[in-house]
Amino acid sequence: MKSLLILVLCFEVVSGCNAASAKASLCPGQQYVDVLVADPPTTKQICEAAALAVDFLCQFGIRPKRSIQIEVIEEQIAHSGYSAYGSYDSKNDRIRLMSFAAIHAQIRNPQMYGEPLDVVHYIGVIAHEVAHAVVQHNLHTKLVSPVPQEYLAYATQFAVLPVERRNRIVKKMNVTAWESGDVISDIYLGFEPGKFAAKSYLHLIQMPDPNPFIAILLNAKWYYVYVP
Length: 228
Hints:
Elements: H1 2-8, E1 9-12, E2 24-26, E3 33-36, H2 40-58, E4 68-73, E5 77-79, E6 82-84, E7 86-89, E8 94-98, H3 100-106, E9 111-112, E10 115-116, H4 119-138, H5 147-159, H6 163-173, E11 183-185, H7 186-191, H8 193-206, H9 211-218, E12 224-226
Helix pairs in contact: 2-4, 4-5, 5-8
């Protein structure tokens, strides 16, 4: 399921869809997150996941700077010939997110990291896409590679998982954190998205001071990032 994993959590630079018929609900206590959906329980779930993502990134000085719209849809999201669970449109600061019910109705055996996609992983999907938006707000250069954003988006996704679930997935990936001299590349991301995710999370949380490396990510101008 490697190809599916890398594409169900995607970053797109495309035009957003028209959601005029959906009512926007501002998440309580979050002045930057609007949810376009008519289902109150789903809105609550999305707002809670968004708050987890924002809180995690804020500790590194990465904060949302403008409104982020999260549009819940019932159809599959096409991306490079695959179906995605969610996508972020950087031009309009809008996330398109398949509803949990739609994912299970339209995608056979949806998975995440080799596990069935349950509510816990769905929260991780939301956090991943919100992280894309927040990171985009803080970039100091136009990225030519998805690596810097995916590093932070996957790290955020792992961070919001319950400890036991996260530890189980890290153990399954059987990797260690990125080390000094490593090259974090889009090639590795494409071939081993699960391992890329685990290595990025471990690397971020194990650094005594991650801020200098985060500055490298936000200023990256190449198709890869060297680990100092």
